[in-house]
Design the sequence.
């Protein structure tokens, strides 16, 4: 049974959906904490902080190590420098991703990647992982006035792709993606292997779940 008939486009999330980037976040954030002489965090500490953009990640990390928020500007500058240096080196494309993107493209859908990661980091990562060619557009957390879970990034992306929201499938890994999709009027499918802010993803309100992007064809 197709999820939504007459799909024209798909919007795919990046971190936790296409690429397992927890290693990159951990290395760049710990290099930042080292530089500021703060205590390090583990990947398990960092995972629930991912998904709401780099600003949120840095603010959450500073609170987790009991550092004052006045260090934010220095931390943000250091973090960008370190992230740029290591982007993609400690992260892996999830199994089934290339196949799933190919299925979406072969179904005639226009594809955009919409992430809360800054656009530059996202575009570089997709390029380095050989995924950039699948996408007609890439929009990061700095591309619009508000980030997911606000519906604005999806509404604007639908406009850019020339697709109606009701005919644009969102594929993500978190309640952020699902809430933004619902508010924009897009059908939404979540992968079960991503981050979801440290919460079980199965309880999120979505139209479907897949264990691998390779299964996406069943829902089209
Ligand atoms: O928080 C981030 O930097 C990115 O998160 P997203 O790719 O899942 O939107
Ligand atoms: Mg995500």
Sequence:
């Amino acid at each position: 049974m197709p999820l939504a008939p007459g799909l024209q486009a798909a919007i795919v999330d990046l971190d936790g959906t296409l690429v397992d980037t927890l290693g990159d976040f951990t290395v760049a954030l710990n290099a930042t904490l080292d530089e500021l002489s703060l205590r390090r965090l583990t990947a398990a500490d960092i995972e629930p902080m991912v998904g709401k953009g780099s600003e949120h990640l840095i603010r959450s990390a500073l609170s987790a190590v009991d550092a004052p928020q006045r260090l934010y500007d220095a931390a943000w500058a250091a973090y960008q420098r370190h992230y740029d240096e290591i982007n993609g080196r400690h992260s892996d494309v999830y199994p089934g991703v290339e196949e799933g993107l190919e299925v979406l493209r072969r179904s005639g859908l226009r594809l955009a990647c919409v992430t809360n990661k800054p656009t530059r980091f996202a575009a570089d990562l997709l390029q380095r992982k050989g995924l950039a060619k699948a996408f007609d557009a890439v929009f990061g957390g700095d591309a619009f006035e508000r980030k997911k879970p606000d519906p604005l990034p999806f509404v604007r992306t639908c406009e850019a792709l020339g697709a109606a929201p009701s005919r644009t499938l969102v594929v993500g890994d978190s309640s952020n993606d699902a809430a933004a999709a619902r508010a924009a009027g897009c059908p939404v499918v979540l992968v079960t292997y991503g981050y979801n802010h440290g919460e079980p993803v199965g309880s999120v309100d979505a139209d479907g779940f897949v264990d691998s992007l390779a299964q996406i064809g069943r829902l089209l």
User: Anything to note?
Assistant: The helical segments are 22-35, 43-46, 54-64, 72-86, 97-106, 119-128, 152-161, 175-184. Residues 13, 15-17, 51, 172-174, 194-195 surround magnesium ion (ligand 2) (CB under 6 Å).
